[in-house]
Protein: CG9970
Organism: Drosophila busckii
Amino acid sequence: MKKQRDLLPDSATLEPNFNEEHNLFEHIDLSKEIECCQAYPEYPSIIPKLEFYLRDKNTCDLIVLIGEHKFYCQLCVLQLYSPYFQRCSIPADCNLRLPEQQIKPRIFPLIYNWMLQDTADVRPKQLQNRLLLDFYKAAEFLEIKTLLDDIWQAIGIMDMSETEAYAMLATVRALELLNFEVAIFARISRFFLVLVAAQQFMELSLQDVCRLLNSSSVGVNSEMEIFYSALRWLSHEWPTRQAHVTQLMSCVRFGLLPPLFLRSLQSKQSTQVLHCITQCPLVLEQIEKAFIYASTELYNSGPDQFFGFDVPDFEVPEPRSWIFDKRCAHHHDQHKTFTYQQFLSYLQSLPKRGINCWQSFKYLKESIHCCTASAGTK
């Protein structure tokens, strides 16, 4: 055994000059992507499966009750869009009842489909205005701001004619949509005198009449038409409305009334209503202030210079949206006074010309003084 072991060659003899430090990985380029010889299997998109899951009645975790109707929903979908659902406590039986006066049963599935991005049945411009208003009411209750903005633009109060906008007032009132109510009153301009001529004006509440008479957008030819409109409303249920004289007269911008008309208000009145109005302390004060400033304006001088003594402060009122109706006699001179009876006669002529006769009224850029003068319009 010893001899055989001695006969085995030494390793150095068999592998002369062998490099023990040779590194295999130094010769492999690892910077390139290694191509997989086996392709990944193609999986279907998750979106259809997710949509099926969200719509599947058997997987829903919330039942919304409105009246006698049940709607099976995914709570997570409702919470994504509605802060109302984010806050509300979900009952143990997962049945949540919503007030029918806030959300109509026909509206809720439209909103839920909108949340699921199924807009085939909820394109705002394809819905009637009444349905859109119900839609808005529900979205307002659920606090879905994005949907509120879309519906507001779809209804487009400011793009409607003034007649169409006013026709929506009753519906808006029934739904208690204050934003739309304010927008409708702001929309009334050239339609104002047509409204004053109608029975509906007489039936307006004190708040509504004040809102109109306080507006700078209402279309009139002179402030006398505002004064006479207030007189017409007060006279309708006199003396019941006598208590509203001060509040209603505060809407009249006495500084815009012609001096001759102001002087006539300081004279003896022919009717009980006018007498009561002109004897009201607040009205007397406003007439006095307005008359002083209107008179000094005629002489193109300040009130202190004209009278030689200090006069009460008086803020110059903002002008109205002045209009001109060529078929109205007293519109041919804004500074000419006319009687209440003449105003009523003009109002009586408007219904005969049709509800849209206001569209022929022109906005004035400057005052006119006779029918031959050129009335600037815009």
Summary: The first strand starts at residue 62 and ends at 66. Residues 126 and 154 are 9 Å apart (CA to CA). The beta strands are 62-66, 69-73, 95-97, 219-220, 321-324, 362-363.
